[in-house]
Design goal:
Length: 245
């Protein structure tokens, strides 16, 4: 049975030059007391205005994928690294024991996701990764996977993350990762999934089996997660842990 997480379920902990719509994936499961969907903890759908600076701040025990839909977010961290994060240039920050970074918008407004995953263990070694990918791939592209996988970016958890940019009228089959639960999030656009219409900032899963093929009602950007619902997790993350808003 398909289950939908509708846009009216989301919170907005920040509004203004830095607006966050906070998607709590666990809300798609009726009666779930945790806001997370297995290790997939939080999806922050952010809009950042020109001139915004989010000053240097710390993350601990968060695995964070930064995925930009439009604009350029300028990353700077405590190692001295400065790099632009843009559509097609992904950043994975594996915070571990401690990682400090700053975010700045110098030019056009930025719309992006910051995806928080709970790591398998507390206080792993901090690291940061980058990967350039096709910008408008119409079929699925594997971006993130566990350490033993062939994914270009590694997360310290049994989670896979893919994206696609189907055009209006495109139909895509959903790949299968055996033993893992699918969770599909529409970043922009609109999809028909089975008998459900999934709009921007909405999500869908099937707790009893595989997801059906999807039909793009409009040009769409969609992210697809496969999650080990029984994976061991650290609950000590700055955002991904038990105290997230």
């Amino acid at each position: 049975m398909l289950r939908k997480l509708s846009v009216d379920k989301h919170k907005q902990p920040f509004r203004g030059p830095f607006t966050i719509t906070r998607i709590q994936p666990g809300g798609i499961i009726e009666g779930n007391e945790d806001f997370a969907f297995g290790p997939l903890s939080i999806i922050d759908h952010a809009v950042m205005k020109k001139g915004l600076t989010i000053k240097m701040h710390e993350h601990v025990n968060d695995e964070i994928l930064s995925y930009v839909l439009s604009g350029t977010m300028h990353h700077k961290d405590s190692t001295g690294l400065e790099i632009p994060v843009t559509p097609g240039n992904l950043m994975m920050m594996n915070a571990g024991t401690s990682f400090w970074h700053e975010e700045k918008v110098k030019h056009d407004q930025v719309e992006m996701l910051q995806i928080f995953v709970r790591p398998r263990k507390t206080d792993l070694e901090p690291t940061i990764q980058f990967h350039e990918k096709p910008i408008r791939n119409r079929d699925w592209y594997l971006m993130v996977g566990p350490e033993e996988s062939r994914a270009p970016l590694q997360v310290r958890q049994n989670v896979y993350i893919l994206d696609a940019h189907p055009k209006h009228g495109d139909q895509l089959d959903i790949p299968v990762y055996h033993g893992l639960q699918p969770f599909l999030y529409v970043l922009d656009g609109e999809l028909d999934v089975g008998d459900l219409l999934i709009k921007k900032m909405e999500a869908v899963t099937n707790l009893e089996g595989e997801l059906p093929s999807i039909l793009a009602v409009a040009d769409t950007t969609v992210l697809l997660f496969f999650v080990d619902m029984n994976a061991p997790v650290s609950m000590m993350g700055t955002i991904s842990g038990a105290s997230a808003i």
